[in-house]
Design goal:
With 320 residues, the chain is an alpha+beta fold. Helix content is 54%, strand content 15%.
C-alpha cells in the first residue's frame, strides 16, 4: 500500500527553515519522520526498548547536526542512515561496557565548543528549556553525553558517581522524555540561557585566575557554599571549599596549569571541563584533564564531583 504524502511543507523546506534557527520546523520534521525511524529500528532490533533508544539517539543526532546537512532533499535517507547506524552500534557494543563510541564520535561537532553548533542553529534555548523539565539526574547524563567531552558511558558513570548500568537506564529514560518535551514545546517561546552559561564561565575563569594568585578562598566564597560536599577522583571526599582551594594552589606551586575548555550550564547543574598541563620536568605529573560536575542551589554550589580524564596509552601498549 502506498504511503500518503506528508501534510504540510515539504521536507526540504522544513530543513531549510530549521537551518535558519526555526525550532518549530525542526520539531515538525522530527515528528513527521519518527514513525519511519521506529519502523527501521524495530526491523533491525525487534520490538522493545532498544529500538526506542535508537530512535531517541537519532533525534539527538539530528538536533545537533541538521545544520551540516548539505542536501535538504535527502533528509529522509539521511535520517534512515543515522538510525541504522545507531542500531548497528547497539548490536556491536559489548554488554559489559555498553559504550557506543562510534556513535558518540558522530555526535561530536568539529568546533572547540560543543555548544556552538546549537547556538548557530538558534535551537539552544529550545533544548535547554526542554532539558529543564527533566529531573537533575536525567538532565546531568544528557548534559555530559551530548554537550560535553565526557561521552563514554564509563566516564559518565565516574563523573556522576553511579554504575554504568544506571547511566544506560537514565540515558534511555532521559532521551525519551527530552524528545517528547522538545516536540511539545517547539512552537512556544523559550528563555535565554546564554546569560547563565556566561556567568558560570566567568566564575570558573575567576577561580582559576585566583588560584594562580593564591586567592582561591576568596573566589570560592563568592559562589560556593562553605559546606560544599566534594567527591570524585583520587578518592576525594570532603566538606568545605578550603580543601579545593589548597588543591588548586598546590597544583600551581607544582607547576600545573589549568585551562578551561567548555562550560555546560543550566539552572541548578553545571559542568566545567578543563585540560591540565604538567610541568615540563614532570610530564606525567597529572592527568590530561577532567571536569567538575556542580550541583547548585539558588545559584550556590552545594555539591561538586571531580572527574579526571583517562590518559591514552601508547599504540604499542594498547596492542600488548
Amino acid at each position: 500500500m502506498a504511503l500518503s504524502r506528508a501534510v504540510g511543507p515539504p521536507d526540504a523546506d522544513l530543513v531549510h527553515t530549521a537551518q535558519t534557527g526555526d525550532v518549530s520546523a525542526l520539531g515538525t520534521l522530527l515528528a513527521r519522520h519518527r514513525p519511519m525511524l521506529l519502523s527501521v529500528a524495530i526491523g533491525l532490533l525487534g520490538h522493545g526498548p532498544d529500538a526506542e533508544d535508537a530512535v531517541q539517539e537519532t533525534c539527538m543526532i539530528a538536533l545537533r547536526r541538521i545544520g551540516s546537512l548539505r542536501d535538504p532533499e535527502s533528509v529522509g535517507p539521511w535520517l534512515r542512515a543515522v538510525v541504522r547506524n545507531a542500531c548497528r552500534m547497539q548490536c556491536r557494543a559489548p554488554v559489559h561496557l555498553t559504550v557506543d563510541d562510534g556513535l558518540a564520535a558522530s555526535l561530536r561537532s568539529a568546533e572547540s565548543d560543543p555548544q556552538e553548533l546549537l547556538e548557530g542553529q538558534g535551537t539552544r534555548d529550545w533544548v535547554w528549556d526542554a532539558l529543564e523539565t527533566l529531573s537533575p539526574p536525567l538532565r546531568l547524563v544528557l548534559m555530559l553525553r551530548y554537550f560535553s567531552g565526557v561521552t563514554a558511558y564509563q566516564d559518565i558513570a565516574a563523573a556522576c558517581g553511579v554504575p554504568v548500568g544506571t547511566v544506560r537506564s537514565r540515558l534511555s529514560e532521559a532521551r525519551a522524555k527530552l524528545t517528547r518535551a522538545l516536540l511539545a514545546t517547539a512552537d512556544t517561546a523559550h528563555g535565554d540561557v546564554r546569560a547563565v552559561t556566561v556567568e558560570r564561565s566567568r566564575q570558573a575563569e575567576e577561580l582559576l585566575g585566583a588560584a594562580r594568585r593564591g586567592e582561591s578562598l576568596s573566589a570560592l566564597s563568592a559562589s560556593w557554599l562553605p559546606t560544599v560536599a566534594l567527591s570524585g577522583a583520587g578518592g576525594l571526599r570532603a566538606e568545605g571549599y578550603d580543601v579545593l582551594a589548597r588543591g588548586l594552589e598546590q597544583d600551581v606551586a607544582d607547576g600545573v596549569r589549568h585551562h578551561l575548555t567548555n562550560v555546560v550550564a543550566g539552572r541548578d547543574l553545571a559542568v566545567w571541563e578543563f585540560t591540565l598541563q604538567s610541568p615540563p620536568e614532570d610530564p606525567f605529573h597529572c592527568p590530561p584533564g577532567g571536569a567538575w560536575v556542580l550541583h547548585l542551589r539558588s545559584g550556590w554550589v552545594e555539591r561538586a564531583r571531580l572527574f579526571h580524564t583517562r590518559r591514552e596509552l601508547p599504540e604499542h601498549a594498547r596492542a600488548a
